[in-house]
Amino acid sequence: MGAFRVDIEICRAGRRAKWVRGRGVLVDSGSEMTWLPEARLRSIGVEMFKRDQVFVMANGQEITRDVGIAVIGSGEFKTVDEVVFARSGDRSFLGGRTLEGFNASLDSRRKRLVAVGPILAARSRRGAESMRSPGRGVGADAGISGDTLSGRPKVPLVTPAAGDTHEGR
Fold first, then answer.
1. In 87-154, where do the E strands start and end?
2. Which residue has the higher pLDDT, 106 or 137?
């Protein structure tokens, strides 16, 4: 996959937020968390939320960094996420959790973020009833075995054939 960069805006979560821009931040879906310069995060009031979190670098080295909470935006995308206070010499990049919060995927050919569509939500009891298939339980089509909403016993989706023990699979 080709690497690319995006412009972002960040602010601390809460009232009277002061937004600042970040130009050309690397998108790194291989990293779990977003790393941004500590000085920039502190300048907008992002406070430490977790102290001395341990991270394993690509070369296997373990390092510690503080983590805060910020609002991060890029174009049409926006999310609240934990951010690592990157020190001098650390790279700045958007990690996979921020991308998930954006509900975006990577279009590496066009070097941009793209919306992945509606966010899945839990169904209400009424919605679950409409999913019922006779003898199969709620959510059978979605791979859910049994009606966990009504408290009824779970019904297996597939009854094993005689002598099928599922061993060795």
1. 93-94, 104-107, 112-115
2. 106
Does 167 map to a domain? no
Secondary structure class of 22 (helix, strand, coil) = strand
Residues 146 and 67 in one domain: no
Q: Are residues 25 and 80 in the same domain?
A: yes
Query: 13 with 69: CB under 8 angstroms?
Result: yes
What string of H, E and C letters represents the secondary structure of 81-97? EEEEEECCCCCCEECHH
Distance (Å, whole) CA 76 – CA 100:
14
- Reading the block at residue 139, the tokens are 């959510």
**Contact (Cβ atoms closer than 8 angstroms) between residue 65 and residue 53:** yes
Whether residue 67 contacts residue 38, with contact meaning beta carbons closer than 8 Å, is answered with no
Q: What residues does 137 pair with on adjacent strands?
A: 133
Is 54 buried (19+), middle (13-18) or exposed (0-12) by CB count in 10 A? exposed
Q: Is the pTM of this model over 0.85?
A: no
Residues 27 and 106 in one domain: yes
| Mean pLDDT of all residues in 85-93 | 94
Q: Are residues 35 and 50 in the same domain?
A: yes
